[in-house]
Protein backbone atom coordinates (compact mmCIF):
# COMPACT_ATOMS: atom_id res chain seq x y z
CA UNK A 1 0.00 0.00 0.00
CA UNK A 2 1.50 3.28 -1.10
CA UNK A 3 1.47 6.14 1.47
CA UNK A 4 1.81 3.88 4.52
CA UNK A 5 4.72 4.84 6.93
CA UNK A 6 5.90 2.57 9.70
CA UNK A 7 5.88 4.18 13.18
CA UNK A 8 9.00 2.29 14.20
CA UNK A 9 10.94 3.60 11.21
CA UNK A 10 10.14 7.24 12.09
CA UNK A 11 10.89 6.99 15.82
CA UNK A 12 14.30 5.34 15.62
CA UNK A 13 16.08 8.19 13.77
CA UNK A 14 14.72 10.71 16.31
CA UNK A 15 15.95 8.65 19.24
CA UNK A 16 19.33 8.35 17.58
CA UNK A 17 19.56 12.11 17.09
CA UNK A 18 18.65 12.82 20.72
CA UNK A 19 21.23 10.29 21.88
CA UNK A 20 23.94 11.91 19.75
CA UNK A 21 23.13 15.38 21.11
CA UNK A 22 23.25 14.09 24.68
CA UNK A 23 26.60 12.46 24.07
CA UNK A 24 27.96 15.69 22.56
CA UNK A 25 26.80 17.71 25.58
CA UNK A 26 28.38 15.22 27.98
CA UNK A 27 31.63 15.31 26.02
CA UNK A 28 31.67 19.11 26.18
CA UNK A 29 31.11 19.10 29.93
CA UNK A 30 33.88 16.58 30.42
CA UNK A 31 36.25 18.63 28.24
CA UNK A 32 35.43 21.81 30.18
CA UNK A 33 36.05 20.11 33.51
CA UNK A 34 39.37 18.75 32.28
CA UNK A 35 40.42 22.16 30.98
CA UNK A 36 39.54 23.89 34.22
CA UNK A 37 41.33 21.25 36.22
CA UNK A 38 44.38 21.62 34.04
CA UNK A 39 44.39 25.42 34.28
CA UNK A 40 43.90 25.58 38.05
CA UNK A 41 47.00 27.03 39.75
CA UNK A 42 49.07 24.62 41.85
CA UNK A 43 48.98 24.94 45.65
CA UNK A 44 51.11 27.78 46.99
CA UNK A 45 50.44 30.09 44.04
CA UNK A 46 49.68 33.77 44.62
CA UNK A 47 48.78 36.59 42.26
CA UNK A 48 50.17 40.08 42.63
CA UNK A 49 51.56 43.15 40.89
CA UNK A 50 54.89 44.90 40.59
CA UNK A 51 54.72 47.90 42.91
CA UNK A 52 54.35 51.33 41.34
CA UNK A 53 57.09 53.58 42.73
CA UNK A 54 56.36 57.04 41.38
CA UNK A 55 57.32 60.52 42.55
CA UNK A 56 56.29 64.01 41.46
CA UNK A 57 59.18 66.47 41.20
CA UNK A 58 58.59 70.13 42.12
CA UNK A 59 60.60 73.22 42.99
CA UNK A 60 60.62 74.35 46.61
CA UNK A 61 60.57 78.01 45.59
CA UNK A 62 58.91 80.22 43.02
CA UNK A 63 60.26 81.60 39.79
CA UNK A 64 60.37 81.38 36.01
CA UNK A 65 61.54 78.10 34.51
CA UNK A 66 64.47 78.61 32.13
CA UNK A 67 65.37 75.00 31.29
CA UNK A 68 63.81 71.53 31.24
CA UNK A 69 66.52 68.96 30.56
CA UNK A 70 64.47 65.76 30.15
CA UNK A 71 61.49 64.49 28.19
CA UNK A 72 59.09 61.58 28.61
CA UNK A 73 60.77 58.19 28.54
CA UNK A 74 64.29 59.48 29.20
CA UNK A 75 66.32 58.03 32.05
CA UNK A 76 67.63 60.24 34.86
CA UNK A 77 70.30 59.59 37.46
CA UNK A 78 70.37 60.41 41.16
CA UNK A 79 71.37 64.06 41.69
CA UNK A 80 71.05 65.01 38.03
CA UNK A 81 69.75 68.55 37.38
CA UNK A 82 66.53 68.16 35.41
CA UNK A 83 65.16 71.72 35.54
CA UNK A 84 66.29 75.25 36.49
CA UNK A 85 64.69 78.55 37.47
CA UNK A 86 65.90 82.06 36.69
CA UNK A 87 68.33 82.64 39.60
CA UNK A 88 69.37 86.29 39.08
CA UNK A 89 67.35 87.59 42.03
CA UNK A 90 68.48 84.78 44.30
CA UNK A 91 72.14 85.39 43.39
CA UNK A 92 71.80 89.08 44.24
CA UNK A 93 70.27 88.23 47.62
CA UNK A 94 73.12 85.81 48.27
CA UNK A 95 75.74 88.43 47.37
CA UNK A 96 74.06 90.99 49.64
CA UNK A 97 74.07 88.55 52.55
CA UNK A 98 77.76 87.75 51.95
CA UNK A 99 78.68 91.46 51.96
CA UNK A 100 76.86 92.02 55.25
CA UNK A 101 78.56 89.01 56.76
CA UNK A 102 81.99 90.29 55.69
CA UNK A 103 81.27 93.70 57.24
CA UNK A 104 80.19 92.11 60.52
CA UNK A 105 83.30 89.93 60.56
CA UNK A 106 85.55 92.92 59.95
CA UNK A 107 83.87 94.89 62.76
CA UNK A 108 84.37 92.02 65.19
CA UNK A 109 88.02 91.81 64.17
CA UNK A 110 88.51 95.49 64.95
CA UNK A 111 86.99 95.08 68.39
CA UNK A 112 89.06 92.01 69.21
CA UNK A 113 92.27 93.74 68.07
CA UNK A 114 91.69 96.55 70.57
CA UNK A 115 92.82 100.16 70.20
CA UNK A 116 95.59 100.89 67.73
CA UNK A 117 98.81 102.48 68.91
CA UNK A 118 98.15 105.45 66.64
CA UNK A 119 94.81 106.05 68.35
CA UNK A 120 96.46 105.90 71.78
CA UNK A 121 99.11 108.41 70.71
CA UNK A 122 96.40 110.71 69.36
CA UNK A 123 94.46 110.47 72.64
CA UNK A 124 97.60 111.28 74.67
CA UNK A 125 98.34 114.25 72.42
CA UNK A 126 94.81 115.52 72.97
CA UNK A 127 95.34 115.32 76.72
CA UNK A 128 98.61 117.26 76.44
CA UNK A 129 96.94 119.92 74.30
CA UNK A 130 94.09 120.24 76.77
CA UNK A 131 96.56 120.59 79.63
CA UNK A 132 98.42 123.35 77.80
CA UNK A 133 95.18 125.16 77.02
CA UNK A 134 94.14 124.89 80.65
CA UNK A 135 97.46 126.25 81.86
CA UNK A 136 97.10 129.23 79.54
CA UNK A 137 93.52 129.81 80.67
CA UNK A 138 94.61 129.71 84.33
CA UNK A 139 97.34 132.30 83.68
CA UNK A 140 94.95 134.62 81.83
CA UNK A 141 92.35 134.31 84.57
CA UNK A 142 94.94 135.06 87.28
CA UNK A 143 95.98 138.31 85.51
CA UNK A 144 92.38 139.35 84.99
CA UNK A 145 91.61 138.64 88.61
CA UNK A 146 94.49 140.88 89.73
CA UNK A 147 93.53 143.65 87.31
CA UNK A 148 89.91 143.60 88.48
CA UNK A 149 91.06 143.84 92.09
CA UNK A 150 93.08 146.92 91.14
CA UNK A 151 90.14 148.21 89.12
CA UNK A 152 92.25 148.35 85.97
CA UNK A 153 90.37 145.78 83.82
CA UNK A 154 86.70 145.57 82.95
CA UNK A 155 84.31 143.08 84.47
CA UNK A 156 83.63 141.65 80.97
CA UNK A 157 87.27 140.70 80.47
CA UNK A 158 87.24 139.00 83.86
CA UNK A 159 84.12 136.97 82.96
CA UNK A 160 85.63 135.95 79.63
CA UNK A 161 88.78 134.71 81.36
CA UNK A 162 86.70 132.74 83.86
CA UNK A 163 84.69 131.08 81.08
CA UNK A 164 87.89 130.21 79.21
CA UNK A 165 89.24 128.60 82.39
CA UNK A 166 86.10 126.47 82.84
CA UNK A 167 86.16 125.43 79.19
CA UNK A 168 89.81 124.43 79.50
CA UNK A 169 89.10 122.27 82.51
CA UNK A 170 86.17 120.55 80.71
CA UNK A 171 88.31 119.98 77.61
CA UNK A 172 91.00 118.33 79.73
CA UNK A 173 88.47 116.07 81.44
CA UNK A 174 87.09 114.99 78.06
CA UNK A 175 90.56 114.27 76.67
CA UNK A 176 91.45 112.20 79.71
CA UNK A 177 88.20 110.20 79.36
CA UNK A 178 88.93 109.49 75.69
CA UNK A 179 92.43 108.34 76.58
CA UNK A 180 91.12 106.06 79.32
CA UNK A 181 88.61 104.49 76.92
CA UNK A 182 91.33 103.94 74.32
CA UNK A 183 93.60 102.28 76.87
CA UNK A 184 90.80 100.04 78.20
CA UNK A 185 89.72 98.93 74.70
CA UNK A 186 86.26 97.61 73.70
CA UNK A 187 83.90 96.45 76.41
CA UNK A 188 82.92 92.79 76.69
CA UNK A 189 79.33 93.64 75.85
CA UNK A 190 80.36 95.32 72.60
CA UNK A 191 82.36 92.25 71.57
CA UNK A 192 79.45 89.90 72.32
CA UNK A 193 77.08 92.13 70.37
CA UNK A 194 79.47 92.06 67.40
CA UNK A 195 79.69 88.28 67.61
CA UNK A 196 75.90 88.01 67.63
CA UNK A 197 75.70 90.25 64.58
CA UNK A 198 78.23 88.03 62.80
CA UNK A 199 76.23 84.88 63.63
CA UNK A 200 73.08 86.53 62.33
CA UNK A 201 74.77 87.50 59.07
CA UNK A 202 76.22 84.00 58.63
CA UNK A 203 72.75 82.51 59.06
CA UNK A 204 71.44 84.93 56.44
CA UNK A 205 74.16 83.76 54.05
CA UNK A 206 73.18 80.13 54.64
CA UNK A 207 69.51 80.90 53.97
CA UNK A 208 70.35 82.83 50.82
CA UNK A 209 72.57 80.00 49.58
CA UNK A 210 69.80 77.47 50.27
CA UNK A 211 67.29 79.61 48.39
CA UNK A 212 69.70 79.81 45.45
CA UNK A 213 70.21 76.04 45.41
CA UNK A 214 66.46 75.51 45.21
CA UNK A 215 66.45 77.08 41.75
CA UNK A 216 67.97 73.82 40.47
CA UNK A 217 65.70 70.76 40.54
CA UNK A 218 67.58 67.48 41.00
CA UNK A 219 66.41 63.91 40.57
CA UNK A 220 65.92 62.23 43.98
CA UNK A 221 66.77 58.78 42.59
CA UNK A 222 67.49 56.85 39.41
CA UNK A 223 64.39 56.57 37.29
CA UNK A 224 62.54 57.30 34.07
CA UNK A 225 60.54 60.44 33.27
CA UNK A 226 56.88 59.56 32.86
CA UNK A 227 55.36 63.02 32.41
CA UNK A 228 56.86 66.41 31.57
CA UNK A 229 54.24 68.68 33.08
CA UNK A 230 55.43 72.16 32.04
CA UNK A 231 57.71 73.87 29.52
CA UNK A 232 60.43 76.56 29.85
CA UNK A 233 59.02 80.03 30.42
CA UNK A 234 56.36 78.86 32.87
CA UNK A 235 56.22 80.71 36.18
CA UNK A 236 55.82 78.12 38.93
CA UNK A 237 54.93 78.29 42.59
CA UNK A 238 56.43 76.09 45.32
CA UNK A 239 55.30 72.44 45.15
CA UNK A 240 53.82 72.80 41.64
CA UNK A 241 54.59 69.52 39.77
CA UNK A 242 57.23 69.79 37.07
CA UNK A 243 57.95 66.14 36.30
CA UNK A 244 56.45 62.79 37.19
CA UNK A 245 59.01 59.99 37.26
CA UNK A 246 59.05 56.28 37.99
CA UNK A 247 61.78 55.23 40.40
CA UNK A 248 63.99 52.41 39.17
CA UNK A 249 66.47 50.28 41.05
CA UNK A 250 64.89 47.99 43.60
CA UNK A 251 61.78 46.15 42.37
CA UNK A 252 59.12 44.99 44.80
CA UNK A 253 56.10 42.79 44.18
CA UNK A 254 52.97 43.14 46.28
CA UNK A 255 50.62 40.23 46.85
CA UNK A 256 48.15 38.91 49.44
CA UNK A 257 48.54 35.55 51.13
CA UNK A 258 45.72 33.62 52.89
CA UNK A 259 46.22 32.29 56.38
CA UNK A 260 46.79 28.64 55.35
CA UNK A 261 49.87 29.72 53.36
CA UNK A 262 51.44 31.93 56.04
CA UNK A 263 53.98 29.24 56.85
CA UNK A 264 55.35 29.46 53.32
CA UNK A 265 55.53 33.26 53.28
CA UNK A 266 57.83 33.96 56.22
CA UNK A 267 60.20 36.95 55.75
CA UNK A 268 63.44 35.84 54.13
CA UNK A 269 61.89 32.92 52.25
CA UNK A 270 62.92 32.55 48.62
CA UNK A 271 60.11 32.49 46.04
CA UNK A 272 59.68 32.50 42.26
CA UNK A 273 57.95 35.31 40.38
CA UNK A 274 56.64 34.67 36.87
CA UNK A 275 55.33 37.20 34.37
CA UNK A 276 52.53 36.51 31.90
CA UNK A 277 55.21 36.50 29.22
CA UNK A 278 56.89 33.50 30.82
CA UNK A 279 59.95 35.15 32.36
CA UNK A 280 60.92 33.86 35.81
CA UNK A 281 62.63 35.87 38.53
CA UNK A 282 63.98 34.92 41.92
CA UNK A 283 62.64 36.86 44.87
CA UNK A 284 62.75 36.98 48.63
CA UNK A 285 59.93 37.80 51.03
CA UNK A 286 60.80 41.13 52.62
CA UNK A 287 57.66 41.99 54.56
CA UNK A 288 54.59 40.18 55.84
CA UNK A 289 51.87 42.30 57.38
CA UNK A 290 50.94 41.35 60.96
CA UNK A 291 47.39 42.59 60.40
CA UNK A 292 44.76 40.72 58.41
CA UNK A 293 42.59 42.51 55.85
CA UNK A 294 40.01 41.72 53.21
CA UNK A 295 41.45 40.83 49.83
CA UNK A 296 41.33 43.87 47.51
CA UNK A 297 39.39 43.65 44.25
CA UNK A 298 42.62 43.72 42.24
CA UNK A 299 43.29 40.08 43.09
CA UNK A 300 42.18 38.00 40.12
CA UNK A 301 40.87 34.98 42.01
CA UNK A 302 37.18 35.49 42.96
CA UNK A 303 37.35 32.68 45.53
CA UNK A 304 39.81 34.66 47.62
CA UNK A 305 38.10 38.04 47.55
CA UNK A 306 35.94 37.36 50.58
CA UNK A 307 38.74 35.85 52.67
CA UNK A 308 40.99 37.56 55.17
CA UNK A 309 44.52 37.77 53.85
CA UNK A 310 47.88 39.32 54.79
CA UNK A 311 49.78 41.84 52.72
CA UNK A 312 53.04 40.45 51.34
CA UNK A 313 55.97 42.29 49.75
CA UNK A 314 58.63 40.46 47.76
CA UNK A 315 61.96 41.95 46.72
CA UNK A 316 63.20 40.79 43.31
CA UNK A 317 66.81 39.62 43.60
CA UNK A 318 68.03 40.55 40.09
CA UNK A 319 65.48 42.80 38.35
CA UNK A 320 65.74 43.89 34.74
CA UNK A 321 63.68 45.79 32.17
CA UNK A 322 61.33 42.83 31.83
CA UNK A 323 59.54 43.87 35.01
CA UNK A 324 57.42 46.97 34.57
CA UNK A 325 55.67 48.84 37.33
CA UNK A 326 52.07 47.70 37.76
CA UNK A 327 52.65 44.49 35.79
CA UNK A 328 50.61 41.46 37.01
CA UNK A 329 52.76 38.51 38.11
CA UNK A 330 52.31 35.03 39.54
CA UNK A 331 54.19 34.06 42.71
CA UNK A 332 55.13 30.47 43.56
CA UNK A 333 55.80 29.96 47.27
CA UNK A 334 57.06 26.42 46.79
CA UNK A 335 56.49 23.50 49.13
CA UNK A 336 56.49 23.37 52.89
TrEMBL record:
It comes from the Bacteria. Signal peptide: none annotated. Keywords: Coiled coil, Membrane, Periplasm, Signal, Transmembrane, Transmembrane helix. The keyword Transmembrane helix applies. The keyword Signal applies. It is found in: Periplasm. Its main location: periplasm. The chain crosses the membrane at residues 16-34. Pfam families: Beta-barrel_RND_2, HH_YBHG. Coiled coil: none annotated. InterPro entries: Beta-barrel_RND_2 (IPR058792), HH_YbhG-like (IPR059052), UPF0194_transport (IPR050465). Residues 86-209 form the YbhG-like alpha-helical hairpin domain. GO terms for cellular component: periplasmic space. Residues 250-335 form the CusB-like beta-barrel domain. PANTHER family: EFFLUX SYSTEM COMPONENT YKNX-RELATED, UPF0194 MEMBRANE PROTEIN YBHG. Belongs to the UPF0194 family. This is HlyD family efflux transporter periplasmic adaptor subunit. It comes from Rhodovastum atsumiense. The lineage of its organism: Bacteria, Pseudomonadati, Pseudomonadota, Alphaproteobacteria, Acetobacterales.
Amino acid sequence: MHGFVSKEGGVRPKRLAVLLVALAVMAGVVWLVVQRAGSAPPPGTLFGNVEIRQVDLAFNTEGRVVSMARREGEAVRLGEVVAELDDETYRSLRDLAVARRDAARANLGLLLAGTRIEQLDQARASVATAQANLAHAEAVFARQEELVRRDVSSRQAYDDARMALDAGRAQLDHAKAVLAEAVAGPRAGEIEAARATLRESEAAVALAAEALSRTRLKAPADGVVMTRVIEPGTVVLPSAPVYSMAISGEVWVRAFVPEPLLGRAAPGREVQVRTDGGRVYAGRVGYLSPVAEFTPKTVETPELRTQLVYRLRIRITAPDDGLRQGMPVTISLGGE
